[in-house]
Amino acid sequence: MRRILIRDLLPFVLCCVPVLAGALIAVALPERAQKFYVNNISQMDRLILGLGICLLAAQLLTSWKALQWRGSGFDARADQWLNNLAQAAEWFPLLGLLGTVAGILQTFSSFKSESNLTTGDIIASYAPAITATASGLLMALVNIFPLWMVMMGRQMITALGGESENFK
């Protein structure tokens, strides 16, 4: 039973951590911020979120493979892939920044012909810039968890399993 818990169940639970972290972050945001984000999602947000979810799925599958105990050690074949995928997560804040700049440029271009703008109009026109920043940061944060999870998870599995014959 201990062998099943440590070798099979624990890697699965560890692979759920990044998804749970992302859900926790989303739930922890104030309700008004959540509604604002959902109501003002842009094409750049869709791009960032789509790429981020695909990258996260690839990392979770690779992480699960990297956490598998193979008799005398962990399956290290996935390590290089996992490192490369984790490095790709560093691009999400830059994509969010690019979306922010594009949103601000879009906002400025809409102001040149109108002279009597209200504060509400100005704030509403900044929505794509703000949501792009949030999308980039969220995807970066969620996508850095899998590599950390594998490093900590391997130590946890080794510590719990030890080098006993029951674990091998």
Question: What does this molecule look like?
Answer:
The mean pLDDT is 86. The protein is mainly α. The longest helix has 35 residues, at 127-161. The chain starts with a helix and ends in a 7-residue tail after the last helix. 79% of the residues lie in helices and 0% in strands. The protein has seven helices and no strands. It has one domain.
Helix content: over 70%
Global mean pLDDT: 86
Number of domains: 1
Rg is 21 Å
Structural class: mainly alpha
Unreliable segments (pLDDT under 50, ≥5 consecutive)? none
Q: How does the major sheet shape up? A: none
What coarse outline follows from CA principal-axis ratios? elongated
User: Helical stretch count?
Assistant: 7
> What's the end-to-end separation, in Å?
13 Å
Q: Which sequence of SSEs, written as H and E, runs from N to C?
A: HHHHHHH
Write the layout of secondary structure elements.
Blueprint: H1 2-28, H2 31-39, H3 43-66, H4 79-88, H5 92-111, H6 119-125, H7 127-161
Helix pairs in contact: 1-3, 1-7, 3-4, 3-5, 3-7, 4-7, 5-7
Essential attributes:
mainly alpha; elongated
Give a brief description.
With 168 residues, the chain is mainly alpha-helical. It has 7 helices and no strands.
